[in-house]
């Protein structure tokens, strides 16, 4: 008579699976870093607004102003591919509602039309930002919406910031492991947890009524990176002590 050993086998299998299902202890550290770089591109947005009693007159006048402004911008060195219309508007101007002598409410009425046109200029020579603004204003543009400074290629500074953030997170993990009396065994995951570009992204040029060029300061752009590192850890005595830093 043969006695089956299946129940004993299943018991050992379940016991082994249960032990393997227990996740190893981990330690997670976050790191951040920033890299400061000079911008190499600028966007200048300027335009004009006019008001006239007739809609067609307002549209004609704004077209004349912006034609002169575009010619002046080209004369200052802007290429056709550097110029882009950013907005065109035409809307009525209403007189406020009032009351007639008999007490009845007077409905708002159109008293004029306001036309606006804005153009965006992209410059890679930051020394020409001020002279470009002066050229547009000198040709009749009466609105400078601002100057945005940018990076043509953000990948390099972004990679540098992320690499520095990883080093920062790793140093934190090593310090935490030492303080907790454990050691880093292996790096399990690396996750980018954020990052942004901070800089003079909405700088406003200071315009002068005198015969002086418009001063514009590009400043610097700060590129930030943030990461999260997760390490598998063990006690110092589990494998003979020591700290391999997860590397």
Provide a descriptive summary of the structure in words.
The protein has 247 residues and is of the alpha+beta class. It has two domains: 24-38 and 154-234, Protein of unknown function (DUF541), domain 1 (Translation Initiation Factor IF3); 42-91 and 111-150, Alpha-Beta Plaits (2-Layer Sandwich). It has helices at 6-21, 55-75, 129-138, 155-180; strands at residues 26-37, 41-52, 83-95, 98-99, 105-106, 109-123, 143-150, 183-198, 221-234. Strand 4 (98-99) and strand 5 (105-106) form a beta hairpin. Helix 2 packs antiparallel against helix 3. The two termini are 58 Å apart. The model is unreliable at 5-14, 201-212 and 238-247 (pLDDT under 50).
Quick one: how many beta strands? 9
Q: Segments where pLDDT lies below 50 for 5+ residues?
A: 5-14, 201-212, 238-247
Q: Determine the strand fraction and express it as a percent band.
A: 35-45%
Radius of gyration: 33 Å
Helix-strand makeup class: alpha+beta
Write out the strand line-up for the largest beta sheet, numbering strands in chain order. Answer: 3-6-2-7
Mean pLDDT: 83
**CATH superfamily of the largest domain, please?**
Protein of unknown function (DUF541), domain 1
Order of helices and strands: HEEHEEEEHEHEE
Number of domains: 2
User: Shape from CA axes?
Assistant: elongated
CATH topology of the largest domain: Translation Initiation Factor IF3
Which percent range fits the helix content?
Answer: 25-40%
Task: Note the main sheet.
Answer: 4 strands, antiparallel
What is the CATH C-level name of the largest domain? Alpha Beta
Give the name of the CATH architecture of the largest domain. 2-Layer Sandwich
DSSP summary: helix tally: 4
């Amino acid at each position: 008579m043969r006695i089956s050993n299946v129940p004993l086998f299943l018991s050992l299998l379940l016991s082994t699976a249960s032990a393997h299902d227990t996740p190893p202890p981990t330690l997670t550290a976050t790191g951040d870093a920033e890299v400061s770089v000079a911008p190499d591109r600028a966007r200048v947005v300027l335009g004009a607004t006019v008001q006239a009693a007739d809609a067609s007159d307002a549209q004609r006048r704004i077209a004349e102003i912006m034609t002169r402004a575009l010619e002046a911008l080209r004369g200052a060195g802007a290429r056709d591919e550097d110029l882009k219309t950013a907005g065109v508007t035409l809307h009525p101007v209403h007189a406020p509602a009032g009351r007639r002598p008999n007490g009845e409410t007077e409905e708002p009425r159109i008293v004029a039309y306001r036309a606006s046109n804005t153009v965006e200029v992209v410059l890679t020579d930051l020394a020409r930002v001020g002279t470009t603004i002066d050229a547009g204003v000198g040709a009749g543009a009466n609105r400078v919406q601002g100057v945005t400074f940018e990076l043509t290629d953000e990948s390099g500074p972004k990679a540098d910031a992320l690499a520095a953030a990883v080093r920062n997170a790793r140093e934190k993990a090593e310090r935490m492991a030492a303080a907790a009396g454990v050691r880093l065994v292996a790096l399990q995951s690396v996750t980018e947890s954020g990052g942004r570009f901070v800089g003079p992204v909405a700088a406003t040029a200071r315009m002068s009524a005198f015969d002086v060029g418009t001063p514009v300061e590009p400043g610097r752009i700060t590129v930030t990176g943030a990461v999260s590192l997760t390490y598998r850890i063990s006690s110092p005595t589990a494998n003979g002590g020591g700290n391999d830093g997860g590397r």
